[in-house]
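As a warm-up, study this chain.
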Amino acid sequence: MEMSVTDSGEMIHPGLPLAWGLAVLASMLLVGGVMLIARADGESRTRHFELAAMPGIGGAISYAASSTWLLRVLKLLFLALFLLIIASGLYGTPIPERNAATVLTWNLWWSGLIVSVFFAGSIWCAVCPWNTFANLLVNRRLTGRARRGSRLVLRVPKYLRNLWPALIMFIGLTWLELGVGVTVSPYATAILALVIVILATASLAIFERRAFCRFFCPVGRTVGFYSQLAPVEQRPRDTQICADCTTLECYYGSETVEPCPTHQLMGRMRQNTFCTSCGNCARSCPESNVVWRLRSPSAEAIRDARPHWDEAWFMLGLLALTGFHGLTMMAFWDGWISALARAIGDSGQLLTSFSLGLAASLAAPFLLYAAAVWMTCRVGGLTTGFATVFSRFAFVALPLAFAYHLAHNLNHLVREGSSLSEVLVNPFGQGALPLGDMEKHVRAMDMAIPHGWVHAIQAGLVALGFLIAMRVIQSRGQSLLPQDGRSRQIVALAPMALFAAGMTAFHLWLLMQPMVMRL
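Now compare it with the structure written out below.
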């Protein structure tokens, strides 16, 4: 399979073959039609399997989950890599593909982070170097309960106790990343990392617990929402023990263990959204009642999760921004922005034109979803308020966003990760020259996974995302709509099904287009 080159000399990845695209479309027609007509099984229960009980490796998993020294080692390892990114970005070569700051951040970390959620949920948040750095500066320790007086411990103002700050920061980060060009500037990447550390440190010093993780961090909230589709969860082994508990160490902590950083009560946890996998609840529980377990990846989306208004908007923001990321990596994107710039008289870096493109890409999914919700309310004769229906159905956006994000990042990870060993040996890029076209071609084609497998995984992810979205529509529609007319239910849910199908088709089309290499 051959790579191609744009008019500006950029190397581009080949897209998903037509045969795979047609296969996904056929599965969508079949799955969509069957699930729209069939009734959801409201009595089925999700099965769980405790990881510590797994033969052979259960003991190791249990030890790793409770070990404080292993957590310290991992925190220090990622902190060291983070400091390497800052140092190489500030003092290394400006050539992005030769500098550890840009390669480790955008080629490895951001691509691998989303893939890791698919297997391990929010485990990244447990070892996040931003929080480790802030913890060392403010609490002067890696783990354990902080000394009194080291922080102000103020309550977050009510107007900030929601996800609007995280959504605004996510949009701003996207604007910096793709509009200003942070991804191709080692120096700007290092400055951005330092700014985030400053925000995390200031938040930890001023507010109670880890307010930055709970309300402000766009990466943490992205990981948290995607973790609702992960196959693992941290939950009580016996819910009755939690019901009878009066000390609530999982929430308040113990003499040696910090309280839950995001104000979660283990006995009432139904979703992974705000769990940071820190393990404080497991280490502080006197009954050892907190365990890691396997579950169906669609359990929360279909049955357990109950998103609020701000959470619904964040999930739709994820859907819009993941599609926008893919759109900006198409070979025709620069031509579109240039044409818009000429039409409005924009010049220079074309930030105005880019901002308009970002705004349009954000608005389109929101408006389409709102129109689908309005039509469902109208046709279904719902007396429930629009905001309630908007929030309850918003979970349909999450599997669509996560599936495309995984498929898109997989391409980056397997094609652009081959330079890792080179930048670790020479992180500052001393004496290195820019990559030539032939070397870029060889790197992109030297994949650890065969092309056919990558395409099969991408197609399977997109199909799985649509399947879960349809199950969300089926289950939540049945709980919201009147039960006295099945045909009316089907017609009322058709707009939501068309929204899911339309977004999936758009993502499939993006995957089938040639994609410009990041570095």
